[in-house]
Amino acid sequence: MRLNAVEVGAGPPVVLLHGLLGAAQNWGTIQTALAPDHRVITLDLRNHGASPHAAEMDHGSMAADVAQTLQALGVPRAAVVGHSMGGKVAMMLALTAPALVERLVVADIAPVPYPPNLRAIVAALQALPVTPGLTRRAADALLAATIPEAGMRAFLLQNLRFDATPAWRIGLAEIAAAMPAIEDFAAPAAVFEGPVLFLAGARSDYIRPEHEAAIAALFPTARHAVVPNAGHWVHAENPGGFLDALEPFLGQAP
């Protein structure tokens, strides 16, 4: 599958991959900051943003989409940065197509299965009555009982078109059906030897000490850094701190 791509800048290519229920636009601040020195390619993963929808949504399929898209864009090798679900896709790409990945940055996720904590949010979106006349204000009010954080609701509602016939931009049914695969991480029998940086949010518990063995087994060169004043959404909550860790790593020799 060829994915929707947003490109800015010129120079060594950097690919940015968003998380679950996100889109390429989530990387706007980071993309703008990197563009003076890099060709920044931000992708909508399948069933997200303006990319096509498909029933299959395991990390291997999504990594294959990224590989196909880079080939179509004439990018033989790139630094790949992924957040959360996008981080798992980036790791899978590095493990299955290492020639494409010059270096890897994984933002606040580990190569391990995670509990089904986000299924309630997906179910709440599915329960939303997407009917003619639905407004953003009304949709926000309907989601408030299940999703109390106003910022999270605003983020999620970016996926809903509010026009004469409201509709989801995302493949919501496909995402809901694929949640077990998204939560899992079926690592292949491979090791990525290139440079790797894991970036954790200081207030996040997504990367834990007990994950270090799994990380080291697949990514033996991995280094770790913590983004201060940030939770799971490291690049959005503290973009300056995120860039402070990211930019030196991108500039280092392989």
TrEMBL record:
InterPro entries: AB_hydrolase_1 (IPR000073), AB_hydrolase_fold (IPR029058). One of its GO terms (molecular function) is hydrolase activity. Pfam families: Abhydrolase_1 (PF00561). Residues 12-239 form the AB hydrolase-1 domain. The keyword Kinase does not apply. This is Alpha/beta fold hydrolase. Transmembrane segments: none annotated. It comes from Plastoroseomonas arctica. Keywords: Hydrolase. The lineage of its organism: Bacteria, Pseudomonadati, Pseudomonadota, Alphaproteobacteria, Acetobacterales. The keyword Hydrolase applies.
